[in-house]
User: What shape does this take?
Amino acid sequence: MTDDVGKKLVVALDVKTYEAAEKLVGELSPLAGWFKVGSVMFTREGPRLCRLVKDSGAGLFLDLKFHDIPNTVVGAVTSAAALGADMLTVHISGGQAMLEAAVRAREEAGRNDMIIVGVTVLTHLTFEDFHSLFVSERSTNETVLAFTKLAQRCGLNGVVASARELPLIRRHVGPDFTVVTPGIRMADAASDDQVRIVTPRRAIEDGASYIVVGRPIIAAPDPAGACQRILENMAS
Ligand code: C5P
Assistant: This one.
């Protein structure tokens, strides 16, 4: 059974096979409250992997970043609810009608407990990408905040925010707004391809509702030990 700090830890199941995911879920479900299934493993193993997570008793975070016409997003959210997703992602850039449709689909599925979080601006985008895409004089931070406020107005529970954006967003939303933060590393660890990283403790101090951790746990020689160290750091 996970303790309180474990309920804030999402382990990203970014592995290549169902068997690898099965091993991790078996080892980590007593420690971590959530597992995140993204597009790579969902495309490969989909519903079977989601059932594995649900059967472990952990929360299922379906990170498929829906972004489509409202009618299609309604269908996707309805399907996610039927799969038992406890949290899912949509792109805020899909706009107000799409976001409201996602919230409506959740209600119609009788799943108001399912957390819907929005992706603001993808963190890999450079300043130049950003300006050519959005044709806007707004800074990235201003856009992140505008997208966050739109998500809030449309009834989403929260947003996914990099460690870089977390303090800014937390200053502008109430304490009940969910902020999910990836890009977490222990102070002595390799950063992999993450640009700005923070420690688990720092992310919690900065107001993360949930932290998402992949490689520092799933690629460790002893995933349960690595998970335990992250939980201790979160609690410290
Ligand atoms: O291995 P690592 O801890 O870097 O994994 C972080 C997870 O969070 C990955 O599943 C990645 O796709 C996801 N993510 C991210 N940065 C974002 C949004 C999602 O790293 N801005």
